[in-house]
Write a structure and sequence with these properties.
Elements: H1 26-35, E1 50-51, H2 63-71, H3 80-93, E2 97-101, H4 104-115, E3 121-124, H5 129-137, E4 141-144, H6 165-174, E5 182-185, H7 198-211, E6 215-218, H8 222-232, H9 241-250, E7 254-258, E8 269-273, H10 276-289, H11 300-313, H12 316-335, E9 348-352, H13 353-356, H14 366-378, E10 380-381, E11 383-385, H15 387-390, E12 429-433, H16 441-450, E13 460-464, E14 473-478, H17 480-486, E15 507-512, E16 517-522, E17 527-534, E18 539-547
Parallel strand pairs: 1-10, 3-4, 5-6, 6-7
Antiparallel strand pairs: 2-8, 7-8, 9-12, 11-12, 13-16, 14-15, 16-17, 17-18
Length: 564
């Protein structure tokens, strides 16, 4: 008998416990956002309807994990819970020394504290924000060697998270003495949660060993990376995720791990390595800030839960669901014509906010603005992965001189200090990280609906300019009489006449001095009108009209003056 092929996506688990979601209105969310100074991190979590800020520690633990919690032994030293934890880590990762920490960034701090000195360089396919900060805290410099494809968000290639081998080789050849270790982040969180291929890992490992440099993994999403290798890389289709993971780590010398991701736990992490001398230094550092070496800032029950979670996360049924669930949301957004990083990764969908909000220059943080808009429209919280997170506002296309208008790109002043020459410019991404085993298909549909055109009640205004150069702005006050005077000639060609509409409103709009344009858009009638500002007459002049349905959030501008 042929096996039935289900066409409906469904969760491979039953739900035993539910948590109430507070329902809020749009007006309430606007108030909450203002109170938080437009900072999504300062919102009270009970005022969030669907929280996709992070997948770190926010997932649901299984019944087996909760049962393990009750078995946790809280002895200060020599706990059997640690031995279970250590055994599972060694079985999957293969490293001799296992040092528990309260979470991944603690493992990073200890590793870099014991290995990085002032002036050192640490290459990576892309450092996460905490990894970068911990390196810089020791006086080191974190360098990202991403592949060119990683910066092309719409390009569909299977392993966009790969390390740029050519750049790595060049750096190892020229700066060997300044490089204490090399890191690979799996999956590559900063470029859309994209996986790293086994071929690329092997190539990095070969280079590191040729130069005598240790290779460490940021392994917080190792199981998802192993799954992508299984389904996308030739020769691994018949291997289990656990076997693939073991091969991955065999090419390295150690790893840091946040068990709040692919450990399926609410807290915890570890540092693992083969170097006994380095492990001894790390344990001494652990004692100062985390705790004894067999608990590392964790309760025995947490160690038990992680041990179970690490075994559950490499199950094929779970990984098929997890990656499929992320793709489900990605497909819904694509249907809504939302620009996303493709192909979708294993833990989150990344919206290309720069492409979605081209009218907002990078120095105004479009990904942050998108996050504010999405919360207002649907009560959904995500995370900006761009200029704010990286502390890099982006290189402006042009910088006006004091009291001088910039009329063309030739007048631009380049700011070469914003980005290092060996690094790629970052994208403005907005991450929707899906907590594991927490939300359902219906929740993702709500997220997708919230990215559709919001139900605007008035006109939204944006300034339009080629490459959106910085310039001085002139404020203009627009009345209904202006619109009535400028568009009656085209009214008969519209589906609904403009004259007679309740157009009386007052709105401050920013019009670029010199060569600017103004777009007025009415959502109810899908009508877009384009005006230019005549500097001589000091008035808006109608230039053209078009009848369009604008892209999602295309005309929304969220003020960010209070976001410092």
């Amino acid at each position: 008998m042929q096996e039935h092929k289900f066409t409906t996506f469904y969760e491979p688990f039953r739900i035993k416990s539910v948590e109430k979601i507070k329902q809020t209105t749009r007006d309430e969310r606007i108030k909450f956002l203002k109170q938080a100074n437009y900072n999504l991190y300062l919102l009270d979590s009970e005022n969030i309807m669907i929280d996709l800020l992070t997948d770190s520690g926010t997932g649901a633990m299984s019944s087996q994990q909760w049962a393990a919690v009750m078995l946790g032994d809280e002895s200060y030293a020599g706990s059997p819970s640690y031995r279970k934890f250590e055994q599972v880590v060694k079985e999957i990762f293969g490293y001799r020394h296992v040092i528990p920490t309260h979470q991944g960034r603690a493992a990073e701090r200890i590793l870099f504290r014991c290995s990085v000195s002032d002036g050192d360089i640490v290459p990576n396919n892309a450092h996460f924000a905490t990894t970068l900060a911990n390196i810089e805290a020791q006086g080191g410099k974190a360098i990202n060697f991403m592949t060119p494809e990683a910066m092309e968000t719409s390009k569909n290639v299977p392993f966009k998270g790969n390390m740029n081998i050519e750049k790595l080789e060049e750096k190892l050849s020229t700066c060997r003495a300044r490089i204490p270790l090399v890191m690979i982040t799996i999956t590559n969180n900063m470029v859309g949660g994209e996986p790293v291929s086994m071929e690329n890992i092997k190539a990095v490992s070969k280079l590191c060993r040729a130069h005598g440099i240790p290779l460490f993994f940021d392994a917080c999403r190792f199981a998802e990376n192993a799954w992508f290798i299984k389904i996308k890389e030739e020769g691994y289709a018949n291997r289990t995720p656990k076997e693939i993971a073991r091969e991955i780590f065999s090419y390295g010398d150690g790893c840091t791990m946040s068990a709040k991701k692919d450990g399926l736990a609410n807290i915890g992490g570890f540092l693992a390595m083969n170097d006994g001398e380095l492990a001894s230094k790390c344990r001494k550092e652990l004692l100062i800030t985390e705790g004894f070496t067999t608990y590392g800032g964790l309760a025995g029950r947490d160690l038990e839960a992680i041990a179970v979670g690490l075994n559950e996360v490499v199950e094929e049924e779970y990984l098929k669901y997890q990656v499929g669930f992320v793709k489900f949301l990605a497909d819904l957004l694509v249907q809504n014509q939302v620009p996303i990083v493709t192909p979708p990764g294993g833990h989150a969908v990344y919206i290309d906010a720069g492409a979605m909000l081209p009218h907002i220059p990078r120095e105004k943080f479009p990904a942050w603005a998108l996050g504010c808009a999405l919360y207002v429209e649907g009560g959904i919280r995500g995370a900006e992965v761009g200029g704010v997170m990286l502390g890099k506002p982006g290189k402006p296309t042009a910088t006006p001189s004091e009291g001088k208008n910039v009329e063309n790109e030739d007048d631009a002043v380049e700011n070469d200090d914003v980005f290092e020459s060996e690094e790629e410019e970052h994208e403005e991404l907005f991450r929707l990280a899906i907590p594991r085993r927490t939300y359902t298909e219906s929740h993702m549909r709500l997220v997708a609906v919230s990215t559709e055109k919001p139900a605007l009640k008035t006109f939204w205004f944006i300034t339009c300019h080629r490459k959106y150069c910085q310039s001085e702005y002139r404020k203009a006050v627009v009345y209904s009489t202006v619109l009535s005077a400028t568009v009656p000639s085209c009214a008969t060609r519209m589906s609904r006449p403009l004259i007679g509409w309740p157009l009386y409103f007052l709105c401050h709009v920013r019009v670029m001095q010199g060569r600017g344009a103004l777009v007025a858009y009415h959502e109810n009638f899908h009508l877009s009108l384009v005006f230019s500002w005549n500097t001589k007459s000091q008035r808006l002049v109608y230039t053209e009209k078009t009848q369009v349905i604008l892209d999602i959030f295309h005309d929304i501008y969220i003020p960010l003056e209070s976001v410092a």
